[in-house]
Amino acid sequence: MIQIHYFAGIREQLETDQEQINLPDGISNIDQLINYLQSINPKFDAAVNANNKILVALNQTVVDRSHELSENDEVAFFPPMTGG
Amino acid sequence: MISVQTEDFNIALEYLRLRERAGDAGAIVTFTGLVREIYDHCSADTERIQTLNLEHYPGMTEKALQSIVDAANEKWALLSTRVIHRVGSLKPSDQIVFVGTASAHRQNAFDATRFIMDYLKSEAPFWKKQSTEEGEEWIESRQSDAEALETWQEP
To answer: How much is the pTM?
Structure first.
C-alpha cells in the first residue's frame, strides 16, 4: 500500500487530495506509477497532459521520476512551488 | 527556528528573540515579505488581488524549510536563524514571510537571509492562489525565481 497526496491545481483537477493504492506487480518506480495512474484515472491522465512541470515528492522530498518505490511510501504530485 | 502558521507575526518581537538567542552577534538582518495587490504577470492592471490563499504540504513544508536553513548554516557562520511562513487566506499588504539571521559580521547575515528567501521561493511546498473580481487563479512559478537560485550554484 502507498499513500498518494495531490496539491494545488493538481488536487483541484483530480477532485481529491489523497488516496491509497496497492502497488500492482511490475510497478517499481515513480515513472511506472505515473503511467499506471494515467491508465486507470482519466483525470490524472488529463492533469499530467495539461501540466508538463508536475513535481513528485517521495516521502516528502522532491525526487526524479526514476526513483524506486517501496511499500508504505508517501508520494505527492504538485505543480512548481510558489512560496515567499 | 521555523514556524508555518496562519497567524500574523510581530517583527519587533521576532527581532528581540533573534537578538536574545544570538549571543555575541554583530549583525542581524531581517526580511519581511508582503502580499502585493497586483502581480507582475496579471493579465490586466485592473485585476487587483482581493485575497491570496496559500496552500502547503504539512510535514514536508517544515522539512524543506529546515533543510534550507541547514544549508545556510553550513555555508555561513550564523548565530541564530528564524523563518516564519504564513498559510491560509491573506489580503494585500498582509505580512506573508519573515526571515531573520544573526551573525558576527553583516555580510554573512545579508547573504544567508537572501539565500534562505531565494530557496524558500522555489523549494518549499507552498502554492499561491489569487482571487480577483475575474475569478480565481493559481499563481505560476516565475523564471526570475529560478534564475535567483542559479546565482547560488557552485561554478
So the answer is: 0.93
